[in-house]
Amino acid sequence: GFVFDDSNVKQELAQITNIVQEYSSIFTGAVSNPAKLLEERNEQLKAAGLEKVAAELQAQIDAWKAANQK
After folding, report:
1. What single DSSP character describes residue 49?
2. What is the pLDDT tens value at each position of the chain, 70 positions in all?
3. What number of other Cβ atoms are within 10 A of residue 65's Cβ?
4. Residue 46 to residues 13, 19, 31, 40: CA-CA distances in angstroms?
5. Conformational region of residue 35, where left means phi above 0, alpha means psi within -120 to 50, and beta covers everything else
6. DSSP codes of every residue in 15-29
């Protein structure tokens, strides 16, 4: 099966993980304005390289599929 090689995006993944942990309180119901925090979190995720990680993941999936088609 497919296994993601994160070597090209290790720094981005570390930053993304930190951001997700920082904003985990959004989903507890204890935040008065979750929409504002979600917007802020999403901006930080984008700045941290979320789109780069997604592109790397998709490229690897595409390559894996091409190599494993039967």
Report:
1. T
2. 999 999 999 999 999 999 999 999 888 888 888 899 999 999 999 999 999 999 999 999 999 999 998 7
3. 10
4. 12, 11, 22, 10
5. alpha
6. HHHHHHHHTGGGGGT
Which parts of the chain fold into alpha helices (H)?
10-22, 34-48, 50-68
Residues 6 or more apart whose Cβ sits within 8 Å of residue 16: 45, 48, 49, 50, 53
Q: Distance (Å, rounded) from C-alpha 1 to C-alpha 34?
A: 37
Give the 3-state secondary structure of residue 13.
helix
Tell me the residue length of the chain: 70
pTM of the predicted model, to two decimals?
0.87
Cα 66 → chain centroid: 24
